[in-house]
Design brief:
Length: about 160
């Protein structure tokens, strides 16, 4: 019996050591830690969120272009078919004629001419609309004044009506 124990005890110890070594080297849960799983899940969710934002931005751009293109086409057609006429001072026999009133500066179109859109470049109108939508009314007024050389009040009234 002593010989059996001397052979059996080292064999059991060797088997236990081999089992512990194999268990230690065996990957757990497919070899992925909790941190790795969290990072992969976060990357997947971030990619899905980014794709959703891109889709929303493309849809918004398409809506904005669809809304802007008919008005641009209409403005271009009006410019091609009708000559540009800025309103001038009333004629001396006209009921709105005021002899004490100074004649309008031809470089400064009035608000009515601006509101019709006949004097504005369609690209400028789109820039103004985007500035107003982004809450940058002051920049829109500044841009309009530089482009049309209009006075501050006229430009502000025009931007407020966009």
């Amino acid at each position: 019996m002593g010989d059996v124990l001397t052979v059996l005890v080292p064999a059991l110890i060797l088997a236990a050591a081999l089992w512990a070594f194999a268990t230690a080297l065996k990957p757990r849960d497919g070899g992925m830690s909790d941190a790795d799983r969290y990072r992969m899940d976060l990357a997947r969710r971030s990619q899905a969120h980014y794709a959703a934002q891109v889709q929303a931005a493309l849809a918004a751009r398409a809506r904005m272009e669809a809304a802007a293109l008919p008005s641009q086409n209409r403005q271009q057609q009006m410019q091609h078919h009708e000559p540009l006429q800025l309103p001038g001072p009333p004629a001396p026999g006209h009921p709105g004629h005021d002899p004490g009133r100074r004649p309008d500066n031809p470089r400064r179109p009035d608000l009515a001419a601006l509101l019709t859109g006949t004097t504005l470049n369609p690209q400028l109108a789109l820039q103004l609309q985007s500035l107003v939508r982004n809450g940058q009314k002051l920049q829109a007024v500044r841009l309009l004044r530089q482009a049309t050389r209009s006075d501050l009040l006229t430009a502000k009234q025009f931007v407020d009506r966009l």
